[in-house]
Amino acid sequence: MEHESVPLYWRNIPAYYRLVAKRCKKCGEVYYPPVVKCTKCGSAELEDYQLPHEGELVEFTVLRSVPTDFLKQKPLVIGLVKLGPVKVLGQIVDAMPEKLKPGQRMEVVFRRVVVDGKYGLVMYGYKFRPRP
Amino acid sequence: MEHESVPLYWRNIPAYYRLVAKRCKKCGEVYYPPVVKCTKCGSAELEDYQLPHEGELVEFTVLRSVPTDFLKQKPLVIGLVKLGPVKVLGQIVDAMPEKLKPGQRMEVVFRRVVVDGKYGLVMYGYKFRPRP
Amino acid sequence: MQDVWINGTAMAQTGRHYGLNADEMAARVLEEALKDAGYPEIEALFVASATAEQADKQQMLGAYIASRLGLDKIATYRVENADGSGGAALMAAAMAVRSGLYNCVGVVGVDKPNDVLSNQQQDIYSTATDAVYERYFGVTPAAQAAIMAKIYLAKYEYKYEDLALWPVLMHKNGASNPYAYMRKQAKVEDVLESELVSDPLRLYDVGPMADGAAAVVLCNKKGAAKLLGMWTSTSAIPFNNRPDYDVLYSAREAAERAYRMAGITPRDVATAEVHDSYSIFGVLAAEALGLAPRGGLLAALKSGADLKVNLSGGLKSRGNVMGATGVYQAVEVVWQLMGKSPFKRVDGSIGVVHSMGGVDKVSTVMVLGL
Amino acid sequence: MQDVWINGTAMAQTGRHYGLNADEMAARVLEEALKDAGYPEIEALFVASATAEQADKQQMLGAYIASRLGLDKIATYRVENADGSGGAALMAAAMAVRSGLYNCVGVVGVDKPNDVLSNQQQDIYSTATDAVYERYFGVTPAAQAAIMAKIYLAKYEYKYEDLALWPVLMHKNGASNPYAYMRKQAKVEDVLESELVSDPLRLYDVGPMADGAAAVVLCNKKGAAKLLGMWTSTSAIPFNNRPDYDVLYSAREAAERAYRMAGITPRDVATAEVHDSYSIFGVLAAEALGLAPRGGLLAALKSGADLKVNLSGGLKSRGNVMGATGVYQAVEVVWQLMGKSPFKRVDGSIGVVHSMGGVDKVSTVMVLGL
Ligand SMILES: [Zn+2]
Ligand SMILES: [Zn+2]
Questions:
Q1: Apex CA D132: angle with CA D283 and CA D234, to 5°?
Q2: Is it the case that residue A21 has pLDDT exceeding 80?
Q3: Ligand showing the shortest atom-to-Cα distance for residue D70
Q4: Cβ within 8 Å of C, D 99-118
């Protein structure tokens, strides 16, 4: 797969680099991915909300059949991590899968996600690792 | 655009290399692109039909804004050529566009159409040129 | 059989929206249309998009738009007929309401062609042509439009300068549409001096691709405008074997059927928005809709006739918002009929939308009335 | 409101069809379904395809299928909800007939995933996930299915060996379906020894992608089977924020609504075809359809219950024909109800189809009766 869209990457950098979610100013509900309107109370007043960088592993899997861009990184450990009010799905790094277990403490790190073969664009984003 | 599908190219080689159309065995109607069923008489009995390799230019244009795979060949001369019972749309080569005119005699030649950048696959097909 | 009404409308300014994901852009506009309709409960969402899959690598876009608005449990469907997706989605949505299954549904058209480079836009646009017999050889819709333009101009003995009147009119119309992409007037000389894209067509003959999103809410209860007639028709004839190149078969058939359903004639049409992805298609579409006799539209323009066609500026000036185009057209026609600011009220109560996918492959025509 | 009947059905053997273009493959099967229906005049064609754009670089596929059969002037619409496109197209088509606009319409599902390499298939399949928040990071439907499987197995205290009973049943069912891709029986050991795809899921838990095309003709006049109920529902909850991972919300809601419309309960269901792109989804879908209590399907399998689910072999054995899947399922259910050779007649007159796009994003459930 070509990651052809530079604008698509660029506009999502706040989420990818800083894990910025949205919080409803009225009822406090937090959304990640962000919403256009609070789905709980209907308010359109949403503010940026910085997700915590530490949390707890909910569940994970070791993915061995990966898309083209990830062939060199195979296998990928994909984990669901609870970060404050929401859960986030992403890659787990610096971990031996056989030692991971639900409930353990995790932290957010920033890493290279993919290198676009055609334009040489290096794209970054959050990943998770076990807290030392 | 990646010409990713090798099977798609491969299965259309009879058309691309030999300009094979379909003819209804019952009413004689010729189809290019081929049909699954004669749209004139409804018969499903269709046979391969070799289009003639000489014909007449109906109309043409010089296309200057081209898809990615054709950037190096820009501009493309795209022409509509009457070949026996049907017309065929394709590239015109070996011609000065300012000297082309509707009604002139054309002939079919076989040329490289596109080189797939990713797999280095060279794909061929018919093109047209003015008959000397 | 239920009547279908347009209860809410909204559109975003067309252009370059580098800061918004496609689902967010669509969700914002849909939210506006829902607000305009008084927040009825919608039970389904029909999404028109021509580039979501190829430019944004997103399938099933409706589900993600629903997520951004928390529209849980509703039905979502993406409808794709290339740049005619908007008309197709409107048709599918209108039939859904007529079927009695849903009381209210949303239709949102969204495309972000500027998420990719301009050559990649050509790549994607070319996927509307036959992948095996046309696109493979480098054929694009522009090349096909150019050949049709050459044949049309020769057959009816027009000069290219006559065709140039179309983009001039479009720029004039679009100059007063704040939602349009190209909001400046143009002169015939500007057109003649613009670069050749595929002769005889020049840059001014081509609707520039623009990001955009537009939405309508269709219900079985009275709203701003009523859907009086609608039809979709495909021309199954391959481009290379068309008997005629100076007519849009799909548009002509769809218009005839939609007019018959609405019980109107072309004389009743107070405003029409047609799919002029290339100026020649604007001319041929207007003729197919009966707004001028065959071969006669450029003569009408030359004689200074006051044509109420593409008051929005059309694809040339409003922008070619790809699959969103048909939904924009529906919103524009409703606003023109209502005289909703910033649009001036047209002199009449019936408007027509023509949405087309590819080069005369599939057209949808809708007749809207106050 | 018109009743909707299935007047004609056809399907192609699934597998690798390297010799046929997608439009040709679809046209051949559609022609068979039209023949089966006695060649009624169809006024519209709804095309379900998930890979036409990305694998074959073809938009507006319906127009090209119409060309291959000379179906000039009909309406064509492509409907895309990723691998749930089949159900979505059937819904849109059924609503079109119910609307009274058309008397008869065709629905054809076609996909040729084998037109691209297996890694590219993963690329395309991943476009059903959220492009920005999931696919970007390498997340695939398989990874999400795996996480759901882990949670389900842990919550209901099953072992992986219990889940392995699903693919064993699918291979048993598919062995007698000549249209299936994988027509051999499998033992639990085969499943346990197959390679890990995304733990706990192994190769046998994954429906292999196959080329395929299937078609039905829907009319407002009596035919082989009647559409008794239908509903489409989207789960707007992002995967990462699901309250529960052991339920398919979209399937549960669609089933409840479709059953209510048909006036049936799960007990009335003589046969069901569900979207088991991964074995865990087969389990969860069967539970969502009420064929077993929540968390109880594997217990039923273990106790040797005679479940009439995926008698075709499901996506595991018939193959994952992507957007064509829902149309295959409809044909299979009709043939099972009729006892049309080579399918054995089931003991009852009501069957259910569950078509799903992505990981519990959009489900369509249809209830069919003789
Ligand atoms: Zn709130
Ligand atoms: Zn014949």
A1: 40
A2: yes
A3: 2
A4: 99-101
